[in-house]
Design goal:
alpha/beta; hydrolase activity; 10 helices; three-stranded parallel β-sheet; Metal_Hydrolase; single chain; Amidohydrolase-related domain-containing protein; Amidohydro-rel; 254 residues
């Protein structure tokens, strides 16, 4: 049975224009309209220019942005900054206090896309600071791979990691990843296979799963329908749809 009144937070959205496509979510108004059409209450979104460009190369970064990252451009949208840990004086702010002072509780890193090392000494200072202050880190599994996420979780047990976009063919790898560390949460949006989310929730607990779609780069409607139709207890569905994201965004450790 589809749940029509489920409160949903999409933890993986993109706000702004995207290369080679005309999307309705290229503006805040378009994103809000999309959320409303899907019955999604709120979302965490990365700015498309940070994702596809250089996060340190345009006004609107953490230091120069007009909108506070903790609040976002609208109460229903929380901005997720993309961080690029680099040595002092070489680009993006080298001091993790920039994120801490912004109030952001979730950051995203794209080490392959932006050409830096996830486990360098410079990056490690960021992950230590994030772990200390309860800031979660989102990583795209299609970019960094399952092994990199597992390795980072093993080296930083206190760091909450949201593993995005695992894919519907990767249930066993998702299970292995969840078994690696209790600080890892897996996004459900691309687990579009019958019983897949239920299987993971039964094995590791619904508190290890979080809803996100990757929209508009990926389909939003299918994952949202699947979420509302999960064959799980109501409390478990509510955790996946809203509760786990709320806990992360409030800076609470697993």
């Amino acid at each position: 049975m589809e749940r029509t009144n489920l409160r949903i937070h999409d933890i993986n959205r993109v706000l702004g224009p995207v290369p080679h496509d005309d999307v309705p979510t290229d503006t805040v108004e378009g994103l809000l309209s999309d959320l409303t059409a899907l019955g999604v209450a709120s979302c965490s979104a990365v700015a498309s220019w940070q994702l596809f460009g250089d996060p340190s190369g345009r006004a609107g970064s953490l230091e120069g942005g007009a909108e506070p990252l903790a609040a976002g451009p609208h109460p229903r949208v929380r901005l997720t900054p993309i961080v690029v840990p680099t040595p002092a004086g070489t680009g993006w702010p080298a001091d993790p206090s920039v994120v801490l002072q912004s109030g952001a509780r979730l950051v995203r890193a794209c080490p392959v896309r932006h050409r830096w090392s996830l486990l360098s000494r410079t990056a490690s200072r960021w992950w230590d600071a994030c772990a200390e202050h309860g800031i979660a880190l989102a990583l795209d599994l299609t970019e960094v791979g399952f092994a990199a996420v597992a390795g980072l979780a093993a080296s930083r047990p206190g760091l909450n990691i949201v593993a995005l976009n695992p894919g519907y063919r990767e249930l066993r790898r998702c299970a292995e990843l969840l078994d690696e560390a209790p600080s890892i949460l897996v996004e459900t949006g691309t687990i579009l296979t019958t019983g897949g989310v239920e299987w993971l929730a039964g094995a590791f607990g619904a508190e290890r799963l979080v809803f996100g779609t990757g929209g508009p780069l990926l389909d939003e409607a299918g994952p949202t329908f699947l979420l509302r139709s999960l064959d799980l207890p109501e409390n478990d569905v509510e955790l996946i749809a809203w509760g786990n994201a709320a806990r992360l965004l409030e800076g609470q450790a697993q």
